Amino acid sequence: MTCYFRHIKHVFEKAEIEITNANKQEVDKIIHGIVGVKYSNCPDTWREVKKRIAENEEDFVSKLREEWKKTRIVLRAHNKKRTEITRLLSL
């Protein structure tokens, strides 16, 4: 549920996150976690995102950037393991 993404493109730019079809859902989950709203509840999430950005945009950007970096590290490790398993299975 990324209905609010078009409104926060500037936040993604500041957080150095390029939104793609491949990462959109993961970024959305991260934002839901930051604002503490159940995943897939778009209206409540957008309401809380607006509030957080209005209160302290730089803090929101910082949290988003940090969580995105953590997620990317985990995803890379997972993909590396999957590639290694696939390689071993093909032997």
If you had to describe this structure to a student in words, what would you say it looks like?
The protein is an all-alpha fold and 91 residues long. The protein has one domain (5-89). It has three helices and no strands. The longest helix is centred in the C-terminal third of the chain and has 48 residues, at 42-89.
**Element order: H for helix, E for strand:** HHH
- Proportion of strand residues: under 5%
Oligomeric description of these chains = single chain
Which residues sit in consecutive blocks of at least 5 with pLDDT less than 50?
none
Number of strands: 0
Mean of pLDDT: 88
Major β-sheet profile: none
* Class based on secondary structure composition and strand pairing: mainly alpha
Shape: elongated
Alpha plus pi helix count: 3
First and last CA, distance: 41 Å
Q: What number of structural domains do the residues give?
A: 1
**Residues in helix, %:** over 70%
Task: Detail the topology: elements first, then pairings.
Layout lengths: L8 H6 L9 H12 L6 H48 L2
Helix pairs in contact: 2-3
Question: What structural keywords apply?
Answer:
3 helices, 91 residues, 73% helix, mainly alpha
Summarize the structure.
The chain has 91 residues and is mostly helical. Helices cover 73% and strands 0% of the residues.
